[in-house]
Amino acid sequence: MSLRAIRARDLDELPRLEPDPADGAEATDARWRRLLAEPGVDARLVRADGEPVGTVVRHAGPAGSEITCRIHPDQQGRGIGTRAVRLFLDTQPRPVHARTATDDHASIAVLEHTGFTPVADDADGIVFRLD
């Protein structure tokens, strides 16, 4: 499993990594182009067995940093998300926040396995923090 910065040539792969992109490949491509142009964004492609399987992204802003991790459903359950988040966090300043739905048990497990602790619960889900 490895991480590397997302490059322009990766944009064609990103819609494939998102299950059922409701907005379609063109909109997904445009969203990623906007995201990658934002200051404070560090976006990495997750590769396993030489193939792209997901993304890890940090958004840094005035309120702090928040990370997101998406692993394609076909690749979940193999520990890839946990390893990707651990590897990514080795390069990131603290504190870092993450948010997940209250019923997303896989994401909650990844966050707990990587040292995050829940700090708030609101209508948008659970907020985690890693110092």
TrEMBL record:
Domain of life assignment: Bacteria
Pfam entry (one): Acetyltransf_3
SUPFAM superfamilies on file: Acyl-CoA N-acyltransferases (Nat)
Domain N-acetyltransferase: 1-131
GO molecular function: acyltransferase activity, transferring groups other than amino-acyl groups
Protein name per UniProt: N-acetyltransferase domain-containing protein
Source organism of this protein record: Agromyces rhizosphaerae
